[in-house]
Amino acid sequence: MSRLFSSSQVLGSSGSKMASFGKVTHCIFDMDGLLLDTEPIYERILGDLLKSYSSPYPRATRMKVMGTTEQRTCSILVQDLKLPCTVDDFLAQFRRNQLLHLGQAPLLQGAERLVRHLHQHKIPIALATSSGADSVEVKTKNHQELFELFNHKVMGSSDPDVKEGKPAPDIFLVAASRFPDKPAPAQCLVFEDAPNGVTAAIAAGMQAVMVPDERVEEDQRKHATVVLRSLEDFRPEDFGLPAFT
């Protein structure tokens, strides 16, 4: 997946540091579009579903649902596009189709290297995804060993403790509270691709590393702590974490 950047917050592959950041001790990762390249698959699933209702899938709507829970995604689509079905009906179709197609999602550039590096250096890591448990099981089935390195997983669409999905901060606050040592929000660094996820992280009092899709506009990137082309460009030492060797 290609990435485009013009933000002054970008850290390039040259390794030059362009800002100062707070030291962190724990890391929390989004999954879709950040660790796993699922977004093109979701595009096809939702696009095909909407075609069955003779509905377009406008770009503004695609941006609006990015990073939201399954329930919220379907609610936005049904209401904004005025689909002739209930949210529950659309959600059932969406879940059925995603379980059929998401199992082959590949890892994105730099994802495995970073997760393994942090685990090797005993940096506590957690997953905080808007997906539900069934969906996560399907999407990670070809990468089980890697995802077992996470201390815990918070799955927003099926976790009762996540009262509000992104852009609300709930999922990241729940993720932080489940680390054994219960770090303060300021000690946690969030990795995200979606504007809704970055908004949630900042609202939670955490710093946010953003690796956005090329379609994300410049003004939707400005609230991130730092914007990267890929996880390959992340410099752990900038946040007080062990550097790559």
Tally of individual domains = 2
Query: Helix-strand pattern, N to C?
Result: EHHHHHEHHEHEHEE
Strand order of the largest sheet: 3-2-1-4-5-6
At CATH level 3, the topology of the largest domain is Rossmann fold
Task: Describe the fold and architecture.
With about 240 residues, the protein is α/β, with parallel strands linked by helices. It has 2 domains: about 25-35 and about 105-240, HAD superfamily/HAD-like (Rossmann fold); about 40-105, Putative phosphatase, domain 2 (DNA polymerase, domain 1). The protein has helices at about 40-50, 60-65, 70-80, 85-100, 110-120, 135-140, 145, 170-175, 195-205, and strands at about 25-30, 125-130, 150-155, 190, 205-210, 225. The protein has a 6-stranded parallel β-sheet, with helices on both faces. α9 (about 195-205) links the parallel β4 (about 190) and β5 (about 205-210). The chain starts with about 25 loop residues before the first strand and ends in an 18-residue tail after the last strand. The relative contact order is 0.21.
